[in-house]
Amino acid sequence: MRRREFIKALAGVGIVTSATVVRGQQSAAPLIGFLSSRSPGESAGVVDAFRQGLRETGFIEGQNLAIAFRWAEGRYDKLPGLASELVSLPVTLLFAAGGPPSAFAAKGATSSIPVVFSAVSDPVEIGLVPSLNNPGGNVTGMGIFSASLATKRVELMKDLMPNAPVIGYLLNPADGKGAIERESVVAASRALGIELRILNARTETELDSTFAGLEGLRIRALVVSVEPFFDSQRERIVGLAARYRIATIYAWREYVLAGGLMSYGTDLPASYRQAAIYAGRILKGEKPANLPVVQPTKFNMAVNTQTAKSLGIEVPLRLLDLANEVIE
Questions:
Q1: Whole-angstrom distance between the N-terminal and C-terminal Cα of the chain?
Q2: Which pLDDT band holds residue 18 (cuts at 50, 70, 90)?
Q3: Residue 104 burial by CB count (10 A; 0-12/13-18/19+): exposed, middle or buried?
Q4: CB 3.0–4.6 Å: which of 30, 107, 264, 272 could bond 92 by disulfide?
Q5: Structural domains of the chain ordered from first start
Q6: Residues in Cβ contact with 211 at an 8 Å cutoff, skipping those fewer than 6 apart
Q7: Is the Cβ–Cβ distance between 34 and 50 less than 8 Å?
């Protein structure tokens, strides 16, 4: 397809892209399909990190690279269709952002186009790749230790709220990794002598009703699981926690920056940056099958003491000492 026809085709399907052709070259720039289960507004920080990773490998959007974005905005049922649209453009590489739902949709859409995923929880356990060291096929990327970090967040909430009669754990039943995470946190809560209540929410309405019902369940402390739909509803969830005065811990510091109480997890923008570096290496000729799935080595804890004060919670000094970031 000629350059002019290529650009017209992109415009015709209404995508959000910088499908810019490199001046002076005869062929079009590589086109990355960015498939996300999340929403564009709340993903601005990780998209910046994604572009940074590409720049580090010599690819600059609008100069020698184009990006076509597709956003499911928490609607996982839309992902297979969006992935198929990107494959049909066609894209040179699929970047699956926003956890397992996007990664599985991208994998299901193509067995030949390289797929790079970012921040996928336990990719071997959920069946996305057969091995971390030898992913094989056309799929690789960044993994995170979802199950083990989930238990750590339960422990931290117990340290923060030792007298809480019940601790809630919020999951999205539409997320395939939920069963793995549920087993992990239930076992951890038993070992700690905690009464844990599993809560489910897959829509905005269910989030509202879940928070409204917490008091009746004697839940004053809540752990929010790693979940792309929840990330797309970050402002809503933080607002609900404040409204119902619920002590809440999250996976990402972005929640704490938005007014959430506490977080513990990996550096999410760093995951996107590293995955983008993989994408750049593949565009230069490396094979996904030869690139091991990268696991994080740094874990961050953030505490918002202003939020704690508004909830009438005194954060123990030992937790403040553990925190990498204290927001006052």
A1: 56
A2: very low
A3: buried
A4: 30
A5: 3-144+267-298 (3.40.50.2300), 146-266+300-327 (3.40.50.2300)
A6: 240, 241, 243, 244, 246
A7: yes
Q: Which residues, in sequence order, are CB contacts of 146 under 8 Å at separation 6+?
A: 121, 122, 177, 180, 181, 225, 226
Helix, strand or coil, per DSSP, at residue 102: helix
176-214 pLDDT, tens digit per residue, is 666 777 888 888 898 889 999 999 999 999 999 999 999
16-17 and 66-71 beta bridge pairing = antiparallel
Report how far residue 292's alpha carbon sits from residue 226's, in angstroms, rounded to the nearest whole number. Answer: 23
Q: Extract the tokens encoding 280.
A: 């750049």
Whether 13 and 85 have beta carbons less than 8 Å apart is answered as yes
Strands (DSSP E) found in the chain: 16-17, 31-36, 66-71, 93-97, 115-121, 139-144, 166-171, 196-200, 219-224, 247-250, 262-266, 299-304, 325-327
pLDDT digits (tens, 9 = 90+) for 134-176: 999 999 999 987 767 889 999 999 999 999 999 999 999 887 6
Q: Which helix (H) or strand (E) segment is 269 a member of?
A: helix 268-283
Sign of CA dihedral 82, 86, 146, 49: negative
- Closest among 100, 37, 42, 101 to 69, alpha carbons compared: 37
